[in-house]
Amino acid sequence: MKILYFHGFASSGTSGTVETLRNALPEDEIIAPDIPMSPAEALPMLRALCEQEQPDLIIGTSMGGMYAQQMFGFRRICVNPAFNMSKMGSLKTGVHKYHNRRQDNAKEFRVTKDTMHEYAQMER
Question: Which of 40, 55, 72, 82 is least surrounded, with the fewest CB atoms within 10 Å of its CB?
């Protein structure tokens, strides 16, 4: 089975959840991309990845669950989806550190008012 995993806010495709999935499902292919923090970048990238990979299942946690819910036409499991990202207390403007190593080696990211507005637009 081919599974796409969408991580949560400030995480990455190398999170402990990804390792747990790979250990629990050794026969399955787990694809876990690093999701951009900007929804305007993330949503088209994830839709294109789904079309390219044609996964049997998408699993998303928190912010990733919110994105997984929007991947119509695919089987999805949304774990604790963050449907109101713009209202999350941890989503404050400023510089934040990633919780896990990312493929692009980025250590931190910036949340701006524009980022907050992008999340609010998605929630409509």
Answer: 72
State how far the Cα of 24 lies from the Cα of 99, in Å rounded to an integer.
22
pLDDT tens, residue by residue, 44-99: 999 999 999 999 999 999 999 999 999 999 999 999 999 998 887 667 889 999 99
The Cα–Cα gap between 47 and 84 comes to 20
Q: What are phi and psi of 13, to 5 degrees?
A: -75, 5
- Chain centroid offset of residue 124 CA: 19
The per-residue pLDDT for 39 is 93
What is the spatial distance between Cα 63 and Cα 4, in angstroms, rounded to a whole number? 14
Beta carbons of 6 and 68 less than 8 angstroms apart: yes
- Specify the number of domains making up the chain: 1
In this structure, the number of other CB atoms found within 10 A of the CB of residue 17 comes to 20
Q: Are the C-beta atoms of 57 and 5 separated by less than 8 Å?
A: no
